[in-house]
Amino acid sequence: MTFNFVDKSLTYTKAEEKIMDFIENNTDDFLFMNIGQVAKTLGVSDATVSRFAKHTGCKDFKDLKIKVKNENKSGGAAKKMSEALLKSDGFNIDHWIELQKGYIDKTREVIETSELEKMVEFISEADRVFIHGKNASSSLAQLMMFRLRRMGINVSMIPSGGSEIVEGIASAKEGDVIITFCLSKISKESKMILSYGREAGYKTVVFSGKKYRNEEEKADANIFVYRGEEDEYHSMTTPVIIIDAVILAVYEKISKKAEETLNNIHILKKKYKK
């Protein structure tokens, strides 16, 4: 969630942004932690957390927790959509496009190129690629599968949940890669995929809307996409842009194989066109 007492127009250090992201996305956990626990969790010093509290206008860490607690009010999807409309006094396409540009710029600022490069390498060299997504994220999973399959990559979808997910990952082994989309809270299915990956030896990639993840929630490659603040309507613009970027980078690496497959698709379409 976004906190009104935090002035986002100010300049914050990377460590402070990390603290802010943790509080916004793990509010309930934060409220039960002391300053030392927050510092240890994020790999920063107690003094850094204390300075952050004062930078936001709070007297100290205790005052920071009080203000966070006072503003910690949840809202559902309908509330997020109505607030998105209120920001522009009703829907306005120009405003919406400008908002998406801001999300793209934010993603560009914080995304780690090295993580993207690892993802591209994993896909390009994989024997098989498995993709998982549930709820709205399943649309992103389907898009990525469609793009990769057209390049001749052996790719398949893992069922979104239930006991079928076990059957989906049971055959995954070293040389394979599993990509899971968990843009908000990490699902139990994604946790299963990451946990079993450490045992089975396949590579894992997580698409996430959160910069901070604890160790058990981290994959071999972690891709961050910014989709708005916690209490805002979450757009799919930046995830789709990053997916397309990955597809183009993979194509560049396996261009010969990809061209052969795409040409064959073209030939078959002409042959069986009615």
Main sheet attributes: strand count, strand direction, barrel closure: 5 strands, parallel
Q: Provide mean pLDDT, rounded.
A: 86
Strand element count: 5
Strand order of the largest sheet: 2-1-3-4-5
What would CATH call the homologous superfamily of the largest domain? Glucose-6-phosphate isomerase like protein, domain 1
- Taken in chain order, the helices and strands follow as HHHHHHHHEHEHEHEEHH
Percentage of helical residues? 55-70%
Report Rg: 21 Å
Q: Total domains, how many?
A: 2
Structural class: alpha/beta
Identify the CATH class of the largest domain: Alpha Beta
Unreliable stretches (pLDDT < 50, length at least 5) are: none
Keywords: DNA-binding, Transcription, Transcription regulation
GO molecular function: carbohydrate derivative binding; DNA binding; DNA-binding transcription factor activity
Domain HTH rpiR-type: 1-75
Organism: Peptacetobacter hominis
Characterization of the model:
This protein is of the alpha/beta class. The protein folds into two domains: 14-71, Winged helix-like DNA-binding domain superfamily/Winged helix DNA-binding domain (Arc Repressor Mutant, subunit A); 107-271, Glucose-6-phosphate isomerase like protein, domain 1 (Rossmann fold). It has 13 helices and five strands. The chain has helices at residues 14-25, 27-31, 35-42, 46-55, 61-71, 77-86, 93-110, 113-125, 137-149, 164-170, 188-200, 237-253, 255-271; strands spanning 129-133, 155-157, 177-182, 203-208, 221-224. Helix 9 (137-149) packs parallel to helix 12. The longest helix is centred in the middle third of the chain and has 18 residues, at 93-110. The chain starts with 13 loop residues before the first helix and ends with a helix. InterPro entries: Homeodomain-like_sf, HTH_RpiR, RpiR-like, RpiR-like_SIS, SIS_dom, SIS_dom_sf, WH-like_DNA-bd_sf. Residues 1-75 form the HTH rpiR-type domain. GO terms for molecular function: carbohydrate derivative binding; DNA binding; DNA-binding transcription factor activity. Residues 119-264 form the SIS domain.
